[in-house]
Predict the 3D structure of the following.
Amino acid sequence: MIVDPWRVEGEIDYDRLILEFGTRRLDPRMFQNPHTLIRREFFFSERDLDTALREGFFIYTGRGPSGKMHIGHLPPFILARWFQESYGSNVYIMISDDEKYVYNRDMSWEEIDSYSIDNIRDIAAIGFDPDRTFIFRDSEYIRNMYRGAMRVARKINLSLARSVFGFNNETNIGLVFYIALQIVPTMFETKVPLIPAGIDQDPYWRVQRDLAESLGFRKVSAIHNKFFPSLLGPGSKMSSSKPETVIFLDETEETLRKKIYRSFSGGQPSVELHRKMGGNPDIDVSFQLLKYMFEDDDTKILEIERKYRSGEMLTGELKEYTIEKIWSFLERHQRSRRSVNIDRFMYDGRLANEMWNRYF
């Protein structure tokens, strides 16, 4: 198992990650009406979440634009929107084009620029309030963040960067400095910064928590999501570099159908055997997709699980239902994406306009 800000590989042991990262298992009862992603424990870990909920917070999350977005990228943004709707929070979304440029040495700025705009459209289409959401590209907003980044950088020595991130003599200095830049948005408000993200990003927030108060800001609170299994099944993770393993947000109904029908199943080899022995939803990709993202109704998901385990529901029936639910989501998303005005989120909305007039 490898879990760091740039790589997630192997079969993930989430209990072990909680111990190694020093976080706490998320208790859905912390929320009065928890989102499905919390209720069904796709968000599984947290750090000082009770402080954020008690004292007030703003949301900060982000996206590294190294390719097209797929459904595995969505949970932090879906939860960020829910926090905005439920708690009235401002949301700040960093597009870390600089990090992708220094990490992916075979990518040009032109490629990253293209992916950045494409990703921003997908993120904005999720349904954020354009007056309470600021989406920014590091390479563009750097003029406003640079002094703040220098304040942070002065607090971090090379020894700390190496011990936390595993940097070595081959690491380029762009990645080392990026630590400081990623921390700056936690200084955007005086409230607690709450970060929904994969636990692979947690090393940045451990560094932030060590130095935040010395700079006059609040320590980060975090809520961590699991990684979506790829269409290949357990022990794998959706990866844009392997298109056959993911469901992209621009899939057609035809390509979605092909991918779901080829995805890993928990069913038996024959209908007769399946009726007799039942299927295993715990390893079935279609069921996992429904459980975590595409079937909100708790009664319905329990019914599907029961029927599949008993053999009453066949694998083909489960796949058809999954295709119907995912396509309904993708169709709405693609429609929203075509009509969204990203300038409202990047420049013209109330929060965006305020942020372009602030320096940190």
Q: What stands out?
A: The longest helix spans residues 315-339.
